[in-house]
Amino acid sequence: MRAYFTLIGWLALSACSEAPPLVLPAGDEGTGGAGGSVQSHILSVSDNSTVESDPQIAVSNEGLIYLVYSGRLGYAPTHIGYVVSKDRGLTWSEPFSLKSDLGESYRSPDVISDNFGNFYLSFLAYARNGTGASIQVARAESGGAFGSPFRVTEEDEVGFYRRPQLAINNASRLLVGYTTLVGGVSQLAIATSKDGEKWTNRVLTEGNTHHHHASPCAAYLTPQGYTYLTSVNQGALTLRRSGDNGETWEAIGVQATAENGKISGAPLCVASAKNVWVVYGTRKTGGLKEVRVARSADSGASVTSWLTLSNPEESALFAVPQLTVEAPDIGHALFYAGAGPGDESASLRRVRFTNEDLVTPPEEPPDEPELPTYISSTLVHEPLTLQLNDENDRWLGDRVGIAFDKDQLYVSYVDNALRHAHVAFEVLTP
Fold this sequence. Notes:
There is one protein chain. The protein is globular, with a radius of gyration of 20 Å. 52% of the residues are buried. It has a four-stranded antiparallel β-sheet, with no helix packed on it. The chain has a four-stranded antiparallel β-sheet with strand order 3-4-5-7, with no helix packed on it. Strands 8-9-10-11 form a four-stranded antiparallel β-sheet, with no helix packed on it. The protein is mainly beta. 0% of the residues lie in helices and 50% in strands.
């Protein structure tokens, strides 16, 4: 599983004949890390691609890690690349690829694990003729290679979808959150499956206002086992909840602060027991003005406390925030930071925070508001180029990966200090 909630079982990597062989990392070496780094490697360099982006991580309870990413080689269709470690990131397989037999371009990967030793990969498959895309999911059993993908969206049908993201609840029900165009309006949708092969799709919203950035998460190890879905509607952060494995949903939380109308970037949520945290950004030309986290302590019934994670004294522009939790009261956020678009001295930074750090705004704003306080961030890696243009070979991508397991923090990101963007991995001490 991606964060604090990890597998209760593990199957050995060598059990599957198709499993990638584990070797020491190949290709370019990283340019250095900081902030308690144990290992730092660029892992994605191979003959399969020259540019890689959008890394995501899933971790099992016994240390099996899948790191997936988008890969591109010249003008060939993009594919999904992945590497595997069976020793908590100390050694890695060579990069493997999942490519389309139909000439489709595979992009926007996400990965998650269940408690039976399976890893699931979701992605967008863009049609070769440019008519649209489908959402697909592939499964890797027992730490082996990903098999042929299954269609999540309707068979033999393409549409206009955005950023599918995976979750799994305590009933082992798989969910994919995404957005789809209905009558020219972007609407929220959810797909559910018991086995990763057969999927049921539901469109959750309607009307003439656009909904963006559907991100599901689930509360594990709790009796109610709620599943949550966060998104942006008319610039406001929204939160929905399902108690029946994604069949029905209720909108139970909306951020009602001065930030309404300013939310930008893709909000992402994690959940533990009755706690739900959502990380998001506020809008600024070229990137994000702030990175913030919101918390619900009552299973999403209300969102009452917030914290600004980015420090304007450290950087002026931020991008691609991601979140995980170490414990029910401790979280970690990861994001890029720099002086502005194209800054070649940008960095990857993280913030460790507790629930006590979050604040509840007063019902009546004071006459003289106090200046905000910030938690100092920790440097993970530098230098990077803050390249947010997806047509550039140094593009940082739309995602970074972060997961906590066994007192270690795993992060994956794009290192673009060289001529091209490549995917790197580090193990950090909290």
